[in-house]
Amino acid sequence: MPTYSAQREQRNREISEISEISLAELCGDSARMAPHWVVPAEAAPAPVSPSLIHGVVVEPASARLMDATSDYGA
C-alpha cells in the first residue's frame, strides 16, 4: 500500500484542474505576468581585435576539418 496515496490523489486533482484552463485564460494570465519577467537589455560586448587574442590552440585535425569546410576555409 502506498504511503503517499493522499498526496498523489491531491496532485492528480490539481493537474486535472490545471488542464481545464482555457487557452484564453492562459493567455490572459501570461499577459498579466509578462511585466514581472522583463529582463533589462545588456550592452553587446565590444569586438576584440585579433591581435589581442593569445594562447588559442587548435588541434591539427580540427584545423584540417575547418580548412575543408567551404563556409570557413578558403
Set out the fold topology.
Layout: H1 5-19, H2 23-33, H3 60-68
- E-strand count: 0
Q: Give the ordered list of helices and strands.
A: HHH
Biggest sheet details: none
- Spans with pLDDT under 50 lasting ≥5 residues? none
Sheet/helix structural class: mainly alpha
- Radius of gyration, CA atoms, in whole angstroms: 27 Å
Terminal CA distance reads 69 Å
Task: Work out the strand percent.
Answer: under 5%
Summed over residues and divided by their number, the pLDDT gives a mean of 77
Count every helix, treating DSSP H or I runs of 4 or more residues as helices.
3
Helical content (DSSP H or I, runs of 4+): 40-55%
Q: What is the overall silhouette?
A: elongated
Structure overview:
With 74 residues, the protein is an all-alpha fold. Helix content is 47%, strand content 0%. The chain contains 3 helices and no strands. It has helices at residues 5-19, 23-33, 60-68. The protein starts with a helix and ends in a 6-residue tail after the last helix. The model has no long low-confidence stretch (mean pLDDT 77).
Short description:
The protein is mainly alpha-helical and about 70 residues long. It is about 45% helix and about 0% strand. The longest helix has 15 residues, at about 5-20.
